[in-house]
Amino acid sequence: MLRKSPTSELAGFVVNLSYEALPQEVITNAKKCMLDSLGCALGGSQAEETAPLVGALLRLGSEQGATVWGFPGRTELFKAALLNGLMCHALEMDDVHREAKAHAGAVVVPAAITLGEAQNISGKELIAAVVSGYESMLRIGVGIGAQSHRLRGWHATSTCGTFGAAAAAGRILRLNAKQLCWALGLAGTQSSGLWAFTADGATCKKFHAGRAAQSGILAAVLAQAGMSGPSQILEAKDGGLFPATSDVYSLEAVTAGLGERYLINEVSVKPYACCRSMHPAIDAALTLRRLCHIDSSRIKRIVAGTYGVAVQQCGFTARPQNTAEAQFSLPYGVAVALVDGNALMDQFAVGRIHDQALIDLAAKVELVIDPEFHSLYPRKWGCRLEIELTSGEVLVEEVLAAKGDPENPLGAQELKAKFLALAQGAIGAEKSQAAVEMIDHLDQLETILPLTNLLAGISRGQLAKHC
Fold this sequence. Notes:
CATH 3.30.1330.120, 6 strands, 52% helix, two-stranded antiparallel ribbon, four-stranded mixed sheet, alpha+beta, 2 domains
């Protein structure tokens, strides 16, 4: 008999969850999360670093298990999960849950669709698996204490993501409650992911998401084969994830309202290609640009008041040396938003970040911890932007719900436009449009193979030289 613990309660929830019992809002948001995550992955498949990584892994073996999205052909299941998760997180445009401070879409959706393809599941089964994964990952993320966990240097997308991937995979493999509990324990013992990449702009952050997706599937497969995992993986005093990685945590938060409050309904969707902690400041900059018609040459000083984690995490130099540094530089993000009127992939490209006018403007941005916004974090992510002009006039804008937050959501057409913009370069306009329609009617699919067939990319010359 399973010892009662938050892990076993989560396991029971996942095993007993049924598509038919899900509220319509949850089903709709699951589809939105899948559409957004797949768009991010297809966009990420076109990133400069992606083809060499895909080629390196494809050289290791040729078993045809699952699709690598945006690329032709299929490969072994675990490699596909790693690559699909990696691509989902590659552009910094994937969804995020504020209170958990974690990107569930980049882990759960790749794990669920990749394994689901190999297992030939239905659309309804996929939706149930995705919801199971989101709830497990995000509840653990909320319980762990996002601020404390982050300030210790841990990346919750990876540390908590393995649980979400394991829950989704366990659901697809039809594990029983004991096996699912084992799978969550095995996922936790693989938990990893460190923020050290911010020290030098290393490009490995996306690897965290892919590895979590891969590790979660492995955990479920091992549990199905009989390997046991610790049922107290969260709370054990000696080596439990919570006491090992956080100073302030709540085991009760993991299961509070389970089956009633669905955290997938609280996910934020990104409109900009950078760290979500920069988005409130970027929104404020864009609003002031639009309303005040600011001439950047007249700007004397900019002060961005926000919460402590944003100051620590996005205080990168005003002179970023690569895209990764720019995507975590709030000064750069504000500067490019004021000058270009946007903060998409083009604004963070290597050819743009070295513009001297942008560097000079970014150098005028000062980051400070605002007590009000700091006290609201992580439930709310806000920023107060003050722009002092050479005339002495001070322009002020506050943002507490950035574009894409549940309180300020992207509309259905905006989400569709984001997906098409990201996906068309990888799979073409016709297949991209078909994928939008298929996800909208996902619950009518007896098998998800037609969807994964659409996700396979067109032939690419740049991949051939890496294989």
